[in-house]
Amino acid sequence: MTIHQGIKAGIPDALRAKDEVRLRTLRSLTTAMTNEVVAKKRKPDEFLTDEEALAVLKRASNQRKDSIEQFEAAGRHELAIPEKEELAVIESFLPAQMSTEEIETAVKAKMAEMGITEKKDAGKFTGAVMQELKGKADGSAVKAVIDSLLT
């Protein structure tokens, strides 16, 4: 079963369990995935591949994180709560992210492989590292590790 199918199949379970947060989030994700299918000029009843579904999940996760950050910066903590709840549901479908130590190990190995030692090479290097760690690590965490190592 693909990620898209799993999300769609989870809606009846959330209805039966009367889990409003999960139901709202699954419906939102299903809509986003259907929109993605249509944007790719396919029929709306088709399913996304796991890679395509992960891209939609990452986008939804980033949207929730941005909303949480903005609500809390504005002092509207009551509006951040539902976003945090939805983010928790979305993250349950995403693969586990690498820890900072694991990212640092991968970055150091890639630096040695590419012979990178100076900050001026960071642009190409960051792209290469992100390609290697795609889906396994958060981009901002990777960038922070690279910046700390290339000073």
Structure summarized in a few sentences:
Helices cover 74% and strands 0% of the residues.
Task: Tell me what you see in this structure.
- This protein is mainly α.
- It folds into 2 domains: 89 residues, Uncharacterised protein YqeY/AIM41, N-terminal domain (Hypothetical Protein Yqey, Chain: A, domain1, Orthogonal Bundle); 50 residues, Arc Repressor Mutant, subunit A (Orthogonal Bundle).
- The mean pLDDT is 89.
Low-confidence stretches: none
Secondary structure class reads mainly alpha
Q: Number of DSSP strands? A: 0
Assess the beta-strand content as a share of residues.
under 5%
Total count of helical runs of at least 4 residues = 7
Task: Spell out the key features of this protein.
Arc Repressor Mutant, subunit A; 7 helices; globular; mainly alpha; 74% helix; 151 residues; 2 domains; Hypothetical Protein Yqey, Chain: A, domain1
Ordered list of secondary-structure elements with their pairings:
Layout: H1 3-17, H2 20-39, H3 50-73, H4 77-91, H5 100-114, H6 122-132, H7 139-149
Helix pairs in contact: 1-2, 2-3, 2-4, 3-4, 5-7, 6-7
